[in-house]
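Lesson 9: reading folded outputs for more than one chain in a single document. The general rule is that every protein is listed as its sequence immediately followed by its structure tokens, and records are never interleaved. Here is the first one.
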Amino acid sequence: MRTFARDEKGAAVVEFALAIPVLITLMVGILQFGIVLHTSGGLRHAVGEGLRFAKINPHATTAQVVAETRAHLDGIDPAGITAIDFQRGTSNGAQFGRLTINYQATPVIPFVPREVIALSETRQAYLQN
């Protein structure tokens, strides 16, 4: 019995079997976090480009601003976009534009019931008169 208790054959396999679920969970979490950061950055870029278009084209319609915003959604699944809204307004005599994008990202976590991740990006900028 002492020989059996001191035998270390297979110890690495048991340790690996205990550690692998934690490592896989950590890797999937890092992957999901990276996807959300990439999507958020892409939304921020598209909103900025849409407002830039509205600034340099003061007579652009809402549909043109939305189309320009969609054209700059690089690397983002267009099926996840739930809304793109552009509004013009006046504040203290100055015109402004507000652009909002709502996006729903589907998590990549396997074998788990998952809820969508809702992302929203809003930016406001003053426009030329």
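And here is the second record, again sequence then tokens.
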Amino acid sequence: MATRILIADDHPLMRAALRQSVTQSLPDADIVEASRFEEVESALNKGDPPDTVLLDLHMPGMNGLIGLALVRNEHPAIPVIVVSAQEDPATVQRAMEYGASAFVPKSAPITQIGDAIQAVLDGSLWAPETGNQGGEEADLAAVVAGLTPQQLRVLGGIAAGKLNKQIAYEMGVAETTVKAHVTVILRRLGVHSRTQAALVASRLAFAPPPPAGEG
């Protein structure tokens, strides 16, 4: 059976470049594309699941590391390769802490992307060399990894500055359900207000890099 790969990026040119790198490494690969996080979730939940996902951290609906944590939470058997224009050591380390199996800068040559894909399909991890971060980020990653999918969606809404009623409407649940999730999230994060939770969430849904290239 052909290897199935999901390419998720909101920039058509970047998806084309990633498709080229995949076909160079795996000529017979079955490639599926997504331009929004909702399309990623649809592709993961319908039909044959992909063998791996090439995931942009900044596509619409993604909420940065919150979206990555949600994918890993709901589909732990599917390895994720983060492909990002934001390639500083801290971002690389954080993506790996939050469950990515590989991190490839968008500036990397096509051969590196192919190497990362092969490594992940073989069950290995792949990332550029980075310095080590302190334990605080690892602790936060562990807390986020312990949230349920619904709690992660609520956290994503908080990061986007949405009201509880907006989050409830988008999730198709009662506002009281969202409030209950917020209470759990505050306790898990060790904060006492929604504003404090929003500050923590904003660290996870970090802003995309300046529009000098792909997001």
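What the second record shows: Strands lie at 4-8, 30-34, 52-55, 80-84, 102-105.
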